[in-house]
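task queued by scheduler; priority normal; single chain, no ligands, no partner chains; default sampling; output format set to C-alpha cells
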Amino acid sequence: MATITTSTTLTVPELRERWMPHKERLNSAGSGHPTAVRFHRACSWLEEAERFHTEDQTDHALIFRWTAFNALYGQWDLDRHEPLADRQSWQVFLSRMLELDTTGHIVALLNEHRGLVLAILGNPYLNDYFWHDPCREKAGKTRQGGRHKAEAWYAQKDWPLILDEVVDRIYLLRCQLVHGAATLRSGLNREAVRHCATMAGLLVPTFLLVWIDHGADEDWGIMCYPPVNHGAGDIRHRRLR
C-alpha cells in the first residue's frame, strides 16, 4: 500500500464540496441513493459535533462523532428486521476502508497521531480486560501491557489491528456514555473522553475522505431505516445493484 506522509483532515464543507460530483451522479435517477444518504447523514452529525468544542462538551462531541461513523458502517439484518450488531458491522467496515485506501490516508493518520493512539490503547479503563475484575493492581498491569502491545503493533506495521483496537476502545466509552454507565462531564473520565473524542474527530473525516476517493461506487450493504417517500410507492430495504 502506498502511503502519504501526513494525514488530511478536511472540514465538513470541504468534504461535501469534494463529494458533490459523486452525489450528483449517484442521484441522477432520483434522490435517495443509499451511498449518498449515508454520506449525508454522517456529515450532518459530524458538522453538529463541531458545535461542542469546549472541555465540558467533549461527551457530546464523542457521541455525535460516533453517530456519524455509525451512519457509514450500519447494516440491516433482513431476518431480524433490525440493525446488525455494532461491533460486527464496524469491524467489516474498517477492513474495507483499509483495503480501499490505496492513498494511505488512514495509515498516515495513525502514524501522525501515534501518541494519541498509544494513550488510548494504554488506558486501562478503555480496555474490556480490566473490567473483568477491576482493581488498582490490574489497572497498572493493563496500562503497561496495553501500551507495550501497541508499540509492538506499530513496529510490525499491523495497521488493521491498531485501527480495530483503537476503535474498540472508543466504542467501549461510547457505550458507557450512551447507556448511562457514566456521568455527564464526570471528573473520572475526562482524559479518556477527551482522547477518544479527538481521535473520533480525526478518524471519521478520514473515513469520509476514503469514501470520496475510493468508495463512491462500492456496495455498502443494506442501509438502516432508509428515507421514506410515501408518494414513491412501496419502500423496502434492498441491496444496491
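post-processing summary
- The CA atoms of residues 91 and 164 lie 7 Å apart.
- The chain has one domain: 12-231.
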